[in-house]
Design a protein that fits this description.
Elements (H helix, E strand, L loop, with lengths): L5 E4 L12 H14 L4 E4 L11 H15 L4 E5 L5 H14 L3 E5 L8 H13 L5 E5 L1 H4 L5 H10 L3 E6 L3 H10 L5 E4 L5 H6 L4 E4 L2 H16 L3 H17 L11 H9 L16 H11 L4
Parallel strand pairs: 1-2, 1-8, 2-3, 3-4, 4-5, 5-6, 6-7, 7-8
């Protein structure tokens, strides 16, 4: 399964009561596929506020997005958790909804060792026929999956086909250098998109794709076509957005900034659910300046 070069982790639009607003969800789907040129969408990932979505909401989102995307982009369901059995349950719901793949985050809080990680991901992958993208993000999970464990899963489990790697560029490079044929390594950090490509990464699972996706596609294509200087110029232009959505003007929890940025672009995606809170006035002003050239 090739999920493409630009995978956007979609926000979940909320109404004034912080329930999912389906008309605006459809607008965002159209924007990400037709305007921002996303190859795939991650639904109910961190950017989609997965920790505060119920299983019922996730299942309904999966069904809705599959229907509205209608084959124009691959749909990847975020079904990972820190419970193997719960992840299997969510994966079955996603498979029934007709998604194209699943994203499985490293279990958080309970801090499994590498053998525990291997067994966790293998058990979930073997419970489904769907292609699996692993997700290593130690800044959120504390535990980091090693290169050896990721490669072991890539070689041992046929439907584990990709990983979203956020530990370091060095880890991206090691994985890309030793991965089996057909296993794709994605960066999970927008600012590391071009560096990841330069060490053998395949693409990006993006937040900034909501705002500058079509520009990111041009940067990626320029690099793939061998136009490294042009890709570097694109990177310099886009870097303030990549950084600004997470550091506005200090580290800000995702998706607070990107939801506000979408509001500035006319999308009524609403606020965020507690324990996240809306951006401060200073953060809003910073985001406005960062994305102003792209409005």
């Amino acid at each position: 399964m090739d999920f493409g070069r630009l995978v956007t982790a979609m926000v979940t639009p909320f109404d004034a009561e912080l329930g999912i607003t389906w008309p605006e969800t459809e607008r965002v789907i159209e924007e990400l596929i037709e305007v921002q040129k996303s190859d795939s969408l991650v639904i109910a990932g961190t950017t989609g506020e997965s920790p505060t979505l119920s299983d019922e909401e996730k299942a309904e989102l999966f069904r809705f997005v599959v229907k509205k995307a209608n084959g124009r982009a691959k749909i990847i369901a975020g079904t990972g958790s820190n419970s193997t059995s719960h992840s299997i349950h969510l994966t079955k719901l996603a498979e029934e909804a007709g998604v194209d793949g699943i994203l499985l985050v490293v279990p958080y809080y309970n801090k499994p060792n590498q053998e525990g990680l291997y067994r966790h991901f293998k058990a979930i992958a073997q419970s489904t026929t769907l292609p699996v993208m692993l997700y290593n993000v130690p800044s959120r999970t504390v535990t980091s999956m090693s290169v050896d464990t990721t490669l072991r899963l890539a070689n041992d489990v046929s439907n584990i086909v990709a990983t979203k790697e956020c530990a370091s560029i060095e880890q991206v490079a090691q994985l890309a250098s030793h991965a089996p044929e057909g296993f794709y390594v994605y960066s999970g950090d927008d600012a590391a998109t071009l560096p990841a490509l330069s060490v053998g990464g395949y693409g990006i699972v993006s937040v900034a794709g909501h705002i500058v996706g079509k520009d990111m596609k041009q940067m990626i294509q320029a690099y793939v076509d061998g136009h490294v200087q042009l890709a570097s110029e694109w990177n310099a232009k886009l870097l303030p957005v990549f950084k600004g959505l997470f550091e506005a003007p200090h580290p800000i929890p995702n998706p607070v900034a990107v939801k506000y940025a979408m509001q500035l672009r006319g999308f009524q995606v609403g606020g965020v659910r507690l324990p996240l809170i809306e951006a401060t006035q200073a953060e809003k002003e910073f985001v406005e300046q960062v994305i102003k050239p792209f409005l």
